[in-house]
Specification:
Length: 761
């Protein structure tokens, strides 16, 4: 009975029980609830249910490899649910585990089924999605069955072999042609109907098959049909409380902080306080934010805090010497990117910072690390790490000249985070980038840095990293449908699993031509659930293709081991990144619950709109690259561009303003400014040439003028000389005339004298 009740209803029932049967002389348990105890046959009292036995009596693993899943750690309440569920599964009874989204239902049932599975039991794990129908599930289920006689089918194998179908997220199945209706029909009648139209349906009796299912208790408008639920033994899973989370993560983290693992002195104590700090922050953040359309991706659950500690364990394995400061700073980085990186507003990030600061002051109040941990930006890369990463990325840009990206500090932080996630295990590696209008350069540079090849559905399938101009896999958007994407996902998985190539699938909201595309991506994200993509003939061909690789790996070949080897390679080499500028991909119908289910399984990074200071810094980064404006004018232009962008962003209309829009605006402004400067320089050059010609003409005119002056002086001197000559000539003429007159007089006198003389004679 208690398994059907939520935690709140259990509290109410516990209160009623204690007050109704207080006068019977029973010794009621004080700590916990009555559901945690059972009657003691020897005394009129209660003892803990699992004081004598445990359902999952397994000691925690002393650490794990960098790419392996985290070990399962038992708790009392998990053991209670596991004990009941394990007995029901062993008897073949259908079990339905209901709980909150991301509360650990799947992991708990997987642990139960791993203890239950034997040579006589076959386990079939199937993830239900919004687009899952009964016929699609039957096509997968039929591959595990073999025909006996007539219309009777049974699990493959000899004897009374049982098939346990593990249906995850049963509440997500499509209402039309529902998976739930098929399961209900099987549970009530022992068989299923195959076929679409009524006249073409065929009845099949399926024996020795049981169901183990999970469903979320709060899923908005989509709820599980009560006609289906009444056929199951419903167990309610409330999730882990804070004390259980501290026990789980202390058990997982402590082996990596022991002195034998290379940890420094006192790191183990810091690790215990760090676990308490992380659990407090997670418990505080989960109910902190009220739901809204902009906060629909605020799904902080067990997956997030478990992912943080798995990354911490990977960091401890990679570090040569683990220090207390490095451990806490590593947690700060992981916590910031996991929680604050998904927040969509500056106010929400400030609230996150308040929660973290309060928790740090509580658990590290007497530590010397507290002032350093409280500093803003303590989660960011150090200067040396940033310079080293920038140098490595510059080398990648030289090898890929088609990539054009500016390495701001924020871009370096994002690329570093993307590289870390790409190198992570499969279930921690998938990313949804929200707020990126043009994510291609960022993702391609991060993938190239990690050695991955980027493939987009809008591009023809090619190993070329920078192909940019083809329709979806060589097809027009009108003809590209769900079957096309399914075929190309098979091709991509074959490249990753058979050829052992590292592939990264980048899907943007523009390429989500149908909402059913997200259903395929959702199943691929669910721990590489891709078996349903391949028909039997294709699986046979893949098994033959990987046979030599299986043999070289030292594994005994069989079809099952070969297929598992192929799936492990796909999980090792395939990564998925979904980028959308808004919270919902474009499509013909809303994705509601299925979109939330998908977001709860991936890493979310919300690309925050830049603040005014960030906008000014980005503008100055581009303006300082050109020497057109003086420093004072550059600052004014940067503030002007930032103000324009903020005004456009405040008026979100048909053309939304993203950070990439501002970069385009700044690049356009710088380009136009450079063009104007070049035009001005060209005109100035022409004017300078004209002025040089004028100057040369002026110089020549000056020379001519000087020559004319000199010639004028010569002429004046000559004129003066000529004047003197003329004066001299005049004087000489006057003298000559005087002498001529004198001669004439003398001649006249002589003549007179001659006349006188002649007369005298």
């Amino acid at each position: 009975m208690g398994g059907h009740l939520s935690h709140t209803n259990k509290l109410i029932f516990d209160y009623w029980w204690r007050h109704s049967f207080a006068d019977l002389g029973l010794t009621h348990p004080v700590p916990g609830l009555i559901w945690d105890y059972c009657p003691d046959p020897g005394t009129p009292g209660f003892v803990p249910c699992f004081s004598t036995h445990l359902a999952l009596s397994s000691s925690p693993s002393p650490g794990f490899k960098a790419d392996s899943p985290a070990p399962f750690v038992s708790t009392s309440r998990a053991d209670a649910v596991a004990h009941v569920a394990q007995r029901l599964v062993s008897q073949g009874s259908p079990v339905l585990l209901v709980g909150a989204l991301g509360s650990g239902k799947t992991v708990l049932l997987q642990q139960i089924l791993s203890k239950t599975t034997s040579n006589d039991v076959t386990l079939q794990h199937y993830y239900a999605s919004q687009f899952t129908t009964g016929q699609s599930f039957w096509s997968c289920l039929k591959e595990q069955l073999e025909w006996k006689w007539g219309r009777n089918f049974a699990p493959q194998g000899s004897g009374n072999r049982r098939l346990v179908c593990f249906l995850d997220d049963l509440h997500n199945s499509a209402p039309a042609g529902s998976l739930g209706e098929m399961v209900r029909c099987h549970l009530t009648t022992g068989g299923v109907w195959e076929g679409g139209a009524c006249e073409s349906q065929r009845w099949h009796h399926v024996a020795n098959t049981s169901y183990v299912c999970t469903a979320s208790s709060v899923v908005g408008e989509r709820r599980l049909d009560l006609r289906l639920a009444r056929h199951f033994t419903v167990l309610h899973w409330d999730g882990y409380d804070s004390s259980e989370l501290e026990t789980i993560f202390s058990t997982i983290l402590s082996p990596h902080l022991s002195p034998t693992s290379g940890a420094g002195a006192g790191v183990g104590e810091v690790g215990e306080r760090l676990v308490q700090l992380a659990v407090q922050v997670h418990s505080r953040l989960s109910p902190l934010f009220l739901p809204s359309p902009r906060r629909q991706h605020y799904l902080f659950n067990l997956r997030h805090i478990a992912g943080i500690f798995r990354q911490l364990c990977r960091w401890c394995i990679e570090e040569k010497e683990v220090s207390a400061r490095g451990l806490v700073q590593a947690w700060q980085r992981e916590s910031w990117w996991t929680y604050s990186g998904a927040l969509s507003s500056k106010v929400d990030r400030e609230r996150y910072q308040e929660v973290v600061s309060h928790a740090l002051r509580k658990h590290f109040c007497q530590s010397d690390l507290l002032p350093e941990l409280l500093q803003p930006g303590s989660h960011q890369l150090t200067c040396s790490q940033r310079e080293n990463l920038c140098r490595q990325l510059q080398q990648q840009l030289t090898h890929h000249p088609g990539l054009h990206i500016n390495l701001y500090d924020t871009v370096l932080e994002e690329i570093n985070r993307l590289c870390q996630l790409i190198r992570s295990p499969f279930d921690l590696s998938h990313v949804v980038l929200i707020g990126h209008a043009h994510p291609d350069p960022l993702v391609q540079l991060a993938a190239a840095h990690c050695g991955y090849t980027v493939v987009r559905p809008s591009l023809y399938f090619s190993s070329s990293l920078l192909a940019t101009s083809c329709s979806p896999f060589g097809m027009s958007p009108a003809s590209y449908n769900e079957e096309s994407l399914r075929h190309n996902l098979c091709t991509l998985c074959t490249e990753a699993g058979v050829k052992n190539q590292q592939m990264l699938l980048l899907v943007t909201s523009v390429e989500m031509l149908h909402v059913s595309f997200l259903g395929l991506l959702h199943k691929a994200v669910c721990n590489g659930h891709i078996t349903h993509l391949f028909p039997r003939e294709e699986r046979t061909r893949i098994i033959s293709a990987v046979r030599s690789s299986v043999t070289r790996a030292g594994i005994a070949f069989s079809p099952t081991t070969a297929w598992q080897f192929f799936l492990s390679r796909v999980r090792q080499n395939l990564r998925i990144v979904l980028a959308t500028p808004d919270l919902r991909p474009q499509g013909d119908t809303p994705l509601d619950v299925h979109w939330m289910e998908f977001l709860s399984r991936v890493n979310i990074h919300y690309h925050q709109p830049w603040t005014q200071r960030d906008l000014v810094d980005v503008a100055l980064h581009h303006l300082n690259a050109i020497s057109v404006l003086p420093p004072s004018l550059r600052e004014s232009c940067a503030h002007m561009l930032a103000a324009i962008h903020l005004q456009l962003r405040a008026r979100q209309g048909l053309l939304p303003a993203y950070n990439s829009t501002f970069q385009y605006l700044v690049n356009w402004f710088v380009e136009k400014l450079q063009e104007s400067h070049n035009l001005q320089e060209e005109q100035t050059g022409r004017l300078r040439q004209a002025m040089e010609c004028v100057e040369k003409a002026r110089e020549k005119g000056g020379e001519v003028e000087e020559k004319l002056v000199r010639e004028e002086r010569v002429l004046e001197e000559r004129d003066e000389a000529y004047r003197k000559v003329l004066v001299q000539l005049g004087q000489d003429t006057a003298i000559s005339e005087e002498q001529s007159r004198l001669v004439a007089r003398q001649r006249h006198r002589v003549s007179d004298l001659r006349k006188v003389h002649s007369k005298q004679l």
